[in-house]
Sequence to fold (167 residues):
Amino acid sequence: MEHKAIYPGSFDPITNGHVDIIERCLDIFDKILVAVLENPKKKPLFPTEERVNMIKEIFAGRENIEVKAFDGLLVEFAEKNDIKVVIRGLRAISDFEYEFQMAQMNQKLKPDIETFFMVPNVKYTYLSSKLVKEIFMLGGEVKGLVPDLVESQLQEKFKKSKPNFDI
Ligand code: PNS
Fold:
């Protein structure tokens, strides 16, 4: 039997912390579905299609990594894709309350779906997509924090005009 897991998030943009979690999860699961949230409430820096395409390009040729956009309930999307494990990264105690609440609510909605928490590589404990955007916007260096492709896409975004997005 193939063990699959879903790794959901906004990924606006994907960081090296996310990449590290995906790579380490592949030592545990046979396949990972990276599920990119299409969130109508937030104005992302990268539209959903761009976020999906960047992740696809980063993992090009990797048959055990699939990337899809989703909206609606995560547990419904997981079920539709025949997946029973949700992966979430837990960086710090500050993440815990929200993650715990979400995991328990997902458990209430679909008791047969489990949440699997991953501790990030210590190199990336401080890293978040939000900080990457803020640092980049203020002219700071993001090399080593995000894949090269993301860095060049950030440069493209800010080269044209100052984008309007929710941090
Ligand atoms: O990267 P993020 O923004 O922390 O990811 C949050 C995400 C996508 C995991 C969460 O917002 C989510 O699952 N959204 C889908 C809607 C849903 O299922 N809501 C109920 C959660 S209990």
Summary: Residues 4-160 form a domain with the Rossmann fold fold (CATH 3.40.50.620). Residues 8-10, 37, 73-74, 102, 105-106 surround 4'-phosphopantetheine (CB under 6 Å). The mean pLDDT is 94. Strands lie at 4-9, 31-37, 65-70, 85-89, 114-118.
